[in-house]
Amino acid sequence: MNIILSFICGVIFAIGLGLSGMTDPAKVLGFLEIGSSWDPALAFVMVGAIGVHGTVYTLFRKRKKPMFAASFAQPKTTKINMPLMIGALTFGAGWGLGGFCPGPAVVSSVSLQPKIGVFVVAMLTGWFVVNIGRYILSSRASSQSL
Known about the structure:
single chain; mainly alpha; 6 helices
């Protein structure tokens, strides 16, 4: 059931990205380039998303558990650490250089444009490298503690 609900949410998200024009890197870069050709569209999308989240959060915050999960997901840590900083910098650099963040990139990949394919492949490669690195580091740490 969770997979079906996740898929439905993903489709709604993809439709929203498409309708708002946020799958177009020029739109995103137009927001990031403050100057004479600044495009505030992304700000309006963010304000709309914050409004929807605020409304839903207000309606559901007093529940003991979510409707379709055993508990609310909470971050494991609230500390600002090096992995968080590196991830944020990498995300920002990729977004600024490519004009995509992960969601719109995946949605736009159906267009089969080579530059989008390169971005998605680079993004997935980075994800795999980070996860392999984490696995290696955790394996070493657990073997040293024996």
